[in-house]
Amino acid sequence: MSRARQVLERVVRAADDDGFGAHAVHVLVGDDVAVHHWSPDVRRDIHSAAKAVCTLAVGVASDDGVLDVDAPVTTYLPHVVLGDGVDAVTTRHLLAMTSGIDLPWTPTLLTDWPDLAVEYLGRPSSGRVFQYSNASTYTAMRVLAAVVGDVHAFVARRLLAPLGIDDTTWDRCPLGFVAAGEGLHLRAAELARIGRLIRDDGTWDGERLVSARWPAALRTEWTSREASPVYARYSLGAWGGPGAGWRLHGAHGQLVVFVDDAVAVVTVTADDHAGADLMAERVVHAVAAGAEG
Asked: Suppose 248 and one of 173, 179, 211, 256 were both cysteines; which one would form an S-S bond, judging by CB atoms 3.0 to 4.6 Å apart?
């Protein structure tokens, strides 16, 4: 039995034993793939796992030389009235959630203000402290839109199409901009292809889609915070842990878990917000057990 199949069987057993509401599990070890579905294979919102896609998209624009992630956001959004201290905020800070701007999530976040980016940047910054907010990623994508045009079209052309992912949808705000840190709809296998692209440092079938420094940033540029171990480190779109792993983590259990220096990538789509942290632990343990034979 292949290692991917071993890992898959352990993850499936754990999900069933825990009563975890998974839709699918996709395991990649080397080039070996094993997949299990509990429900129809349809596209679903990957929620905050989309934040990593946003980082890769910014990386492509940076590689192209049209976006400086360490320049103040006012370079690209010059007409926005800034709150105190926001003149020092960069796109990298927005992706890393270190703008120091506080704007909590609500179910109606995209429609609570006439322009979410203007509202966000108009609030004061408390400095380079961690403040998790979907508005931060949304604003980063507004910066990207200022240099590439429609972000979904850019992502579809430069990242998704080369992965064989076509005709996707990405939810939008009333102004027509992508929801950014949520709202991208993918199948489990499609989300797994993004995981593979990250694992392989930005290459796909021998073609470089984004320079290696951007996938590397997802697993190295950590900001520490006081929280439970699985939420104690955040990079530019990923969480550190559990254990030796790290992960893309979207609401309701959308997980891409990287283990053993990303030798194994396990993708889970689900509708079980409460059980997701435990599921991530199960995945890491399943990979470790598979390595032991």
From this structure: 256
